[in-house]
Amino acid sequence: xxxxxxxxxxxxxxxxxxxxxxxxxxxxxxxxxxxxxxxxxxxxxxxxxxxxxxxxxxxxxxxxxxxxxxxxxxxxxxxxxxxxxxxxxxxxxxxxxxxxxxxxxxxxxxxxxxxxxxxxxxxxxxxxxxxxxxxxxxxxxxxxxxxxxxxxxxxxxxxxxxxxxxxxxxxxxxxxxxxxxxxxxxxxxxxxxxxxxxxxxxxxxxxxxxxxxxxxxxxxxxxxxxxxxxxxxxxxxxxxxxxxxxxxxxxxxxxxxxxxxxxxxxxxxxxxxxxxxxxxxxxxxxxxxxxxxxxxxxxxxxxxxxxxxxxxxxxxxxxxxxxxxxxxxxxxxxxxxxxxxxxxxxxxxxxxxxxxxxxxxxxxxxxxxxxxxxxxxxxxxxxxxxxxxxxxxxxxxxxxxxxxxxxxxxxxxxxxxxxxxxxxxxxxxxxxxxxxxxxxxxxxxxxxxxxxxxxxxxxxxxxxxxxxxxxxxxxxxxxxxxxxxxxxxxxx
Amino acid sequence: xxxxxxxxxxxxxxxxxxxxxxxxxxxxxxxxxxxxxxxxxxxxxxxxxxxxxxxxxxxxxxxxxxxxxxxxxxxxxxxxxxxxxxxxxxxxxxxxxxxxxxxxxxxxxxxxxxxxxxxxxxxxxxxxxxxxxxxxxxxxxxxxxxxxxxxxxxxxxxxxxxxxxxxxxxxxxxxxxxxxxxxxxxxxxxxxxxxxxxxxxxxxxxxxxxxxxxxxxxxxxxxxxxxxxxxxxxxxxxxxxxxxxxxxxxxxxxxxxxxxxxxxxxxxxxxxxxxxxxxxxxxxxxxxxxxxxxxxxxxxxxxxxxxxxxxxxxxxxxxxxxxxxxxxxxxxxxxxxxxxxxxxxxxxxxxxxxxxxxxxxxxxx
Lengths: 492, 365
Fold this sequence. Notes:
Chain A has 492 residues and is an alpha+beta fold. Helix content of chain A is 34%, strand content 19%. In chain A, the strands form four sheets. A seven-stranded antiparallel β-sheet of chain A has the order 15-12-14-13-17-18-16, with helices on both faces. Chains A and B meet through β9, α8, α9, α11 and α17 of A and β7, α5, β9, α6 and α7 of B.
């Protein structure tokens, strides 16, 4: 997809591995149905949720327990075979794209909820457990796990840790890093250790923070202890349509300034509103230029008080329509439109490309105007979905994956949006991660010295650069003899 | 609203970088000191030549509507509190002000959080970005001034609790939150064991609980949030209402610690105070606690605490000699060999020659 100064040989200077011998050793660790080598069975693993980037793995392994993970990692370390961990494969940055010479370590069979301790308000789970199933299992204690990415039905908690996933409720309840207590990891060298604690802090360095969002580059997560919260007594959504994006943006600032931190605060632009309404029939105002969904939760009294204030604030800021959810079914319907916005927009075009920059909220109008200008420049439609409360913008660029020119324009358009996010004081990724996709934008956010510092941290955990090579942090010139992905994935 | 006028003070970061470069060249370790409010706590007795960073002060940017404040590391928590209070906002992690000497950088390095930690999060949870100088004298930025940022490893949060061993923090961006509309305190006369049980039960309820502590035979519950929710919960839970003297400020300022004094010799003679961090469900140790906080997840003991070791391990937590005692010994809990290796390598990645606060966290680090 990109140009490279390196030759294919240089970029693939991996040691010669006795693949046959290694396969035999894997066969002693795993039953045969947990080892995939046939091309047609490998095919579904060639990419994650970002299908723009594909690569066939040498082999897919599906361990069933931590011991197997450890033995596989030890073997790979001894023979310098790259290891790419994968959860449910719902990631959106090609972070779980396989390495052609490596093992794709799929953790979906580690899918047990080990313990739920209602009094301690925590759950110990394996990495392949889906995000939503934790809340479902905890619901009998009136507890839940707060981070709720849109893919929560399918995405795994191990993947959430790797990406530091957020969701529509993270303004009030935080990201994954705020909602986990302890990890069990297998290190790059094949040692097992526990990071964090069953208590609220741990001795020494905050390695839990470092591991969270490290995209499988620092260790393989084999167990997660998550925090659980009491399920709010009541939640209600207030939906408002606006005639301009500026007014909607001002309304968001107005709600925050009034001292209310909503559980969720989402904005959509016209194209996204119309696509979502066609898809979900949620009763969205089709003619509005912008739509806000503001959820308030808490005790009945708190929700009553905040709903009234939010409704008044939205009207004061010029809302052309305001709707308050009548009951749980209506609330779910109003969210249905937003939560299905990606597939809904996807119906408008053969493919869509989801961006993930975060910006200071006050710049939202300027950034959306710029995105609109870029849309004309690259002749591609764009729909905008925005976690307005925390400034995380998801422009969805519509393109045709079968047309190389369209793909190329989509990539350039996306890159400009990310660089624009940095230029207004934001960052290139709020919750989807860097993976392979955003490597080229890392130098827009970090200086060379900063990238070198990140690389030194990588070395501290993974001296042989065996874990998920070629992702997350650009491989700097000084280390390019190591582990790069093939030329077509180079970020130079 | 911007607060650019506050940074009239000189930017000292370049001078700090030069000092670190010199120290590295001469292989002479530095002890980073700002407000000097926590020198006698937490870590081991400092080694090295003092690098005073207290002059590097000033609020660089404060955007109330963005819920973000950025300040130089030497800015005191008291100054931050004053600026945010004008906008009816606050640092929800409630770091101690320690006679107005505690600084933002020092508070991050120590990750000291107030009584609301269980609900509002620790100081580390509110960090959005840092500017730091590493052991190679390089000025680096990580994180930023936005709520969500997953580009690169989280070097900002890594500073929390590292006691300055992973870089000289020069600037910090923190999340701020609106002050709660209403706050009230409920008091219940209970022994420690009953209080522990009660606090756990209350923490499971979807109510505006924002503090749960036990001290001197009284359990204190703090409610904060929407006025209607606080008043309703107050009626449900009963207890004696006490909004006059604030137990929470005492807890935040750690004023129950007899060792809080500027006098080094006095501290050395004080009985050691231990901080136990455990799962809230861990059984109480077989000795009377000084105080229980965070709904039982943080417990304090004074005196001979050898009996606490087993109790701590079974509670899935750790025990730290917070103050007093012989501070040339290891103060932080021991780490297993894999953790030690990772710690040594992370330290070497950021401070390869061990110039910054060596031995402050562990003798071997």
